[in-house]
Amino acid sequence: MSLLNLATIKDKLIAITMISCVTSLVVAGSAMILYSWGANKDNTVTRLHVLSTVLGDRSKAALIFDDTTQINENLQSLKFEPGVLLACIYSNGKTLEKNHLVGEYISSIKQRQK
Known about the structure:
By secondary structure, the chain is mostly helical. 69% of the residues lie in helices and 11% in strands. A two-stranded antiparallel ribbon has the order 1-2.
């Protein structure tokens, strides 16, 4: 005999209610996770776009007058942004002027070079 045939109507109603509650919680939780992931991605893209625009605007004069001290200071300001591991400033879109490695990324590159 089936387990459903042995159960009382009360037990069957409780089981149906529990299954529908668990299903709705899984669907709602999945929707919240997907929304949070998408919102976080959009926030990160926006934040990095603003950061790169500000850094580019601050570095224009330094590139024109070949002021490496200002370029270094601009790149050093990125150490307070935990999501930035590597930053580079190019002049004329071709020549690498300066680059800046941040935190643990430096040690991981040094370990790979050994």
